[in-house]
């Protein structure tokens, strides 16, 4: 069964079953052990669903998984969302707020959690509408941890090309413009200009933006239109 990518799908009561142990981080770094319901985490994550199949992988037999390359704080936020569907937010530091969501998207991409990827895209849009700033410092985090064509990259390319925040072009921010990101935004801006779509979007337009094209869905599935 494919993990859900739309919010109306919920885990059933029988999925709150046996407990598995997930160890996150390395001994030389902060690390933490989490106790999770096998059925719930497998419901949302294609990675856990495959790893926890009995008689397939050692993890499925031992009910223990080690994720040494994941950050403890990001995984804590994932576990919080796993059981509440509430994302972290409202940080005093706008860069930290964006980066927390970006790291969750990256975790969702690595561990095949499409719904987490989709809701973090939506949350980043909401942060932009609230704060009306895009941190260039986040570009390296995105481009270093995603592949060309990734939904997160395409989303940020769209925002950087069409929101047109003047602060992005200050001389003191040049060092944060990752070369590949700069090229992608330039190319997107040129294509918009060539096709007569070179408009600057305001807050209202961003708030109404259809984000489904930046979501991860099963073939043929789309988000429900909100009236």
Automatic annotation (TrEMBL):
InterPro entries: BTB/POZ_dom, SKP1/BTB/POZ_sf
Gene3D superfamilies: Potassium Channel Kv1.1, Chain A
Ranges of residues in domain BTB: 16-91
A Pfam family assignment: BTB
Record PANTHER family: BTB DOMAIN-CONTAINING PROTEIN, BTB DOMAIN-CONTAINING PROTEIN-RELATED
Listed name of the protein: BTB domain-containing protein
Protein species of origin: Baudoinia panamericana (strain UAMH 10762) (Angels' share fungus)
